[in-house]
Amino acid sequence: MAIRPILTAPNPILKQVSKPVEAVTDDLRALMDDMLETMYDAPGIGLAAIQVGEPLQILVLDVAHDEDEPKPQYFVNPEIIWASEDLSTYEEGCLSVPEFAAEVDRPAAIRLRYLDYDGKEQEMHADGLLATCIQHEMDHLKGVLFIDHLSNVKRNMIVRKLIKASKQAAE
Ligand code: NI
User: Is the entire prediction scored with pTM above 0.90?
Assistant: First the structure.
């Protein structure tokens, strides 16, 4: 396993649309292992493959976020097959938008179809933080960041500050 660098906005790679995975191979499991280690190291509760520069439909999550008892979850080619009309609001952050958080409304519950770590087809119901986190990570697969759900004014302000921070870091 290896920790990989996490891309941050406004890196154009984050705008790419990720491709479905044809088969869950050992190479992809190695990528999922790297993603999980990178996410725990950051630390974060979710990571999409594009955030480490791989445009594939793969997510890793651990919303339990308990160092003593990790509960990793892996989602390959996730597809939302039902979403509630009820919305819930969470203050979201993102490893690709460091230091910023903002409230985003999303369906409160979803039903999801996906392939697991072993490539087996699965279905699950998710609500609460898990539902929000899955939808946030699935946005990454479409090249969408949580700041894209905010007003232009707010998003531009955040992006300007990110550019300034990365210039300062490079100096
Ligand atoms: Ni994110």
Answer: yes
